[in-house]
């Protein structure tokens, strides 16, 4: 790039030495305009790349893949419903089965033995001095 700049500078000096100053100025204006346009293009590319890398992106789902997923999910849901029905039918009480009352265990008092087991305690409250 430095060689390009030196070449342009030498060319412009030669044009100016020949007395064609207006031609040299128009060349400089043309170069500045091209550089400005190229700079704008590069800035736009940088903005697009930044947006692509860091900006919001919406993921697109292929409608065919979505339909396939929904079909599989519905089939699996149907299989699960059928399995659940089979389990409920197998574990449901039959009408001819007798209804048994639940077995009740005597209460144990939180697992501690009472020190007064088998003893009878009588408390007498006598009226005081009236």
Write structural notes for this entry.
It is built from 3 helices and no strands. By secondary structure, it is mainly alpha-helical. Among the domains are: 1-57; 59-91. The mean pLDDT is 79.
- Helicity range of the residues? 55-70%
Number of separate helices: 3
Indicate the low-confidence ranges by residue numbers. none
Average per-residue pLDDT, rounded, comes to 79
List the helices and strands and how they pair.
Elements: H1 2-17, H2 21-54, H3 63-91
Quick summary:
This protein is an all-alpha fold. Among the domains are: 1-57; 59-91. The protein contains three helices and no strands.
Structural features:
130 residues; 3 helices; single chain
């Amino acid at each position: 790039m430095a060689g390009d700049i030196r070449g342009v500078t030498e060319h412009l000096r030669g044009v100016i030495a020949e007395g064609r100053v207006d031609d040299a100025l128009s060349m400089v204006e043309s170069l500045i305009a091209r550089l400005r346009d190229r700079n704008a293009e590069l800035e736009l590319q940088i903005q697009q790349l930044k947006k692509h890398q860091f900006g919001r992106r919406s993921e697109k789902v292929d409608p065919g893949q979505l339909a396939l997923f929904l079909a599989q999910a519905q089939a699996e849901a149907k299989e699960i419903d059928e399995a659940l029905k089979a389990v409920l039918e197998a574990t449901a009480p039959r009408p001819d089965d007798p209804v048994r009352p639940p077995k009740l265990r005597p209460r144990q008092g939180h697992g501690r033995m009472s020190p007064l087991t088998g003893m009878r305690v009588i408390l007498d409250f006598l009226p005081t001095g009236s």
